[in-house]
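In practice, a research group might receive sequence data for several interacting partners and want a quick structural hypothesis before committing to experiments. The following worked case mirrors that situation: the sequences arrive first, and a predicted assembly follows.
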Amino acid sequence: MKHTPFRLGTAKKRDPLGKGLTLVLLALGMGSPLVACRPVSEPRVEAPEREPAPASLAQSEAETGTLEFWANGEDFIREGFVSKDGWVLSFDQVYVTLADMTAYQTDPPFEPESDMALQPKALVSLSGPLTVNLVSTPEERAFLGSLAAPPGHYNAFSWRMVPAVSGPAAGYSLWIQGSAQPEEGDANDAIDFVLKFPQELAFTCGEYVGEERKGFVRAGQVADLEATFHFDHLFGDGELPPEDGLNQGALGFAPLAALATEGSLEMDWAGLQEQLSPTEAEQIMEILKHLGHVGEGHCRETAAGS
Amino acid sequence: MYTFSPRSWNLYRRLGLGLLGLSLLMPARALAHGVEASFRAIPTFQIEARYDSGEPMGSAQVTVFAPTDPTTPWQEGQTDAAGQFLLQPDPELPGLWQVRIRQAGHGVLLNVPVGADATTAAGISSSSPPFGPLQRGVMAACVIWGCLGTALFFSTPRPGSKAPRPAFTAPALEQD
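A structural hypothesis for the assembly, expressed as tokens:
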């Protein structure tokens, strides 16, 4: 008689049917708990990783990241553009002076269009003032500075525009120097212009809005935020129809061209107030209040001088 | 000519019984080709984007970010001519959903809370169908019999248990 290599028992002593039944019951016994343990409720969902991190948590992080601040005048300033009233504008120097540049981790996220207050959980700040030229930059944007920052999502950004204390734009928070030429006209009609604004402005903005999201600081990595200035709000955009909302609110260049003498216009805010109509002067003031953006996102102007 | 030896017969008998046992573990729905359907309500948010002038942001680019990954778009689309977009977030991802709307150099980031405060309702509370009384009774009986069968199996005297147990190999046909 040959021996089976692995025996449950002798065939003579156990009934095969009984052995099979035992196996079936064993299988059922093993399988039943599997069935009975099927979840009767929805799978548990992990709690979302909420951003930003609380300030205390962020501050306790041993490692920090780097947060860079940049200023951007967009292609309008770097490459020039056509105003809403047909003036081809190009720019030589556009100086802006920024101070108290502060990035915040806010919760809830700050919405500048609403009346809600900014509720920071953590913040980092560059005091300045810093003057940058939005035209002559080695990169597309003008670098303002960088600082170590606790990890987290910096989803709000504020800064003040203040008069420069030194340099070519001393005494002015915004200096716009360039040339304008009528789109359809003689080259001799070109106007070299310098517009100088001493107003102190303050912008409080929410999260950067652009092609990609910004402000996510991770330990050992670099993130950035950007103060963006929309000069098409001042001059309008000739590529948009006249009835477009942006052009409806823009001053254009024609009112300024009317003030030029012998192809030149250099005027500060006091002169503009004197030479322009009150409506136009007020229009400029309103435009300056909405000059600051974060990418395409709007800001809340929180303190405007005159 | 191949014949079955008693050893082979035992092997095949065990294999057959094992397969029978495994087949009983297979879900019944696979055998019956059953179909299940359920429903549940999930929140839908109608978003409307417009400029300060009141003009709708028609055909604006819309990017949705789930709270679990704020840097990777969860959904991309665009508003309709009226500047409207229907957001149907995954209700299993509670938290602050963010919707970025951009057009012609202007944009906004909208924060949409999804969670306990959101309006949710469900026809059934489970993705699995509930078990009926009969099913529960059968399952309980199986558990009991399974435990009993296991106990009987291991309580059976095994004379050859002292011999070293060879590694399991696939059954082979024996040739006389």
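Before designing any experiment, note the following. Confidence is low (pLDDT under 50) at residues 119-140, 159-176 of chain B. The first strand of chain B starts at residue 40 and ends at 41.
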